[in-house]
Amino acid sequence: MAVIIIVVIVAVVVGVFLATYHPSKVITITYYDDLSPTEASVFQNDILPEFEKTHPNIHVDYIDANANDIASDVEALVQADAH
């Protein structure tokens, strides 16, 4: 689980860094999380819109998935990137 959190944090930092140095390009970040329904609602309805308003060149694709699916998806992405 800690690896997933680190991967997500790194992805967000890289996205913000790239968007800062290429503000005319729209950057899309895919964010996976295993939030409760209440947390997911706050994240989608309050946090994401405020983040995207503050950073108009960053779009966040939020994917609500359970921890096992997140780990599998991240592993598949790493494997695909390695080839």
TrEMBL record:
Protein name in the entry: ABC Transporter
Superkingdom, natural source: Archaea
Organism expressing this protein natively: Acidilobus saccharovorans (strain DSM 16705 / JCM 18335 / VKM B-2471 / 345-15)
